[in-house]
């Protein structure tokens, strides 16, 4: 078979100019050489700007040992391109154990802007509803910082911390203990004690729900003080101001203008004054428009909890970090948003407010109010007839007293568990549940009076056992009066 070799000519047109294969042979090596020079020049750059725009973050699961050897699990989110050293941050979540998912959206947004971020699950050993230690949590955060520092894609000169809400109690402690922390960024930092902040937050939520009157005082003052006295409010009187005085790193403190939890105006003033007392004038205080406590989007004036971030989330932070490589920031502060009421002053409990006395009163109520119908049922089972002549008011007292006591405990703990975000429908300035409890409390007082009068009228007709049962019931009713007044059930 005869083979012929055809000589082909490849041409291309660029702007009307014909390029032959011979031309490409001359041009292609020069293009490759130029690209090689460009790539090499990128590889030798010591750092990339924080506001670089990578294609997207990569996620790496990590584990590290925190304070006391407790193993913590987290995720490092980093820009796809890891050929350059990047700024990096340990991100510390707010109160509770929501885990790293609470900060995932924010961490991804920051990573997309060229910042390596570490988010991790908070310890459960040594952190719960009854116990926490911000000093221990600070050591955990520093352990995370050491993990980031060991990464090849992290620039140790631009290694910092980012903290939300309760995390902003922790991050200043960590920053004051280690020079490896080069900057500090906070969102929704609180400048007052956790107890005062909780009380203020209750008031904000209840005011927004249209609640007024005694229930507001019960939640804002009585309930908070009682939980402190009972020892079930950990770190209640932690004062963040002295810790902020020890912070020497540049600080970017941010609050949402619609923050309903962290007292933006008061907290920013306290933190600013504490930094200046410590000689730190390298701070930026910023109030972000139209966002809530965690700088997320809000559709309800800051009172909702939407899991959505603004489109430009992280732009300012990345730019601020990038500017640190050129010069430390000078002190600056945005005008603070208005604050409806100041933080409350929580006084110590008086002797009659002792949690032990409160518990004793509740036990008396349960024994007396629940015991009366139980003993009546036992009498019937045994075939004993002849109920005491005062049975009708006594039954009402037992029923209304028991319903009020149990209903109060359930509703109070429910509202506290939701941080007053859920109170139910409101009528004439009161949650309907609270209004029902107030009506029951009044009925209990009326039934107490009726039982006492009937007992006195028929005391000669009562057996010794009946006197004992009714005496305990009436005593519980009399004790109920000051107790209900103290908790606001008999106050408008």
Automatic annotation (TrEMBL):
Superkingdom of the source?
Bacteria
Question: Which of UniProt's keywords are assigned here?
Answer: Membrane, Transmembrane, Transmembrane helix
Note whether Transmembrane occurs among the keywords. yes
The reply to whether Repeat figures as a keyword in the UniProt entry is no
Gene3D superfamilies xref list: alpha/beta hydrolase
| Matches recorded under InterPro entries | AB_hydrolase_Est10, AB_hydrolase_fold
Q: Where are the transmembrane segments?
A: 356-375, 396-420, 432-455, 467-489
- Enumerate the GO terms in the molecular function aspect: carboxylic ester hydrolase activity
What is this protein identified as? Peptidase S9 prolyl oligopeptidase catalytic domain-containing protein
Q: What organism is this sequence from?
A: Micromonospora cremea
